[in-house]
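PROTEIN DATA CARD
Card holder: Cytochrome c, class I
Chain length: 121
Origin: Hyphomonas oceanitis SCH89
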Amino acid sequence: MNLRFPRTLCIVFFASGAMFLASGAEAQDTSDTARGKEVYAGTCVACHGPTGKGTIPGTPDFNKANGVLSQDDDVLTDHIINGFRGRRSAMPMPAKGGNASLTDSDIDDVLAYLHETFDHE
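Structure generated from the sequence above:
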């Protein structure tokens, strides 16, 4: 059996398939802000506070326009994974906020939560 499709129909199918493949190639943000809130409450809140303004001198204020959250997520992820000490910090942030059990997914989730909750000014 020899099937022939109109040229227009072939173009539509081809374009649809290309769009489908392209959409699958894009990075999907699967961060869970609700889980990020839990991670923040269990690991970060002691130093960064419930309002993100910091409880220890030199801890960055997450609400500040052009503040720490304006940095690229790769930089923020590195600071979370490896720890960080700012110029005005009274003490360094330990690697993974002192919680060695944090996973990459936990870190992605907490960053999504930080951006959604504090990065609004």
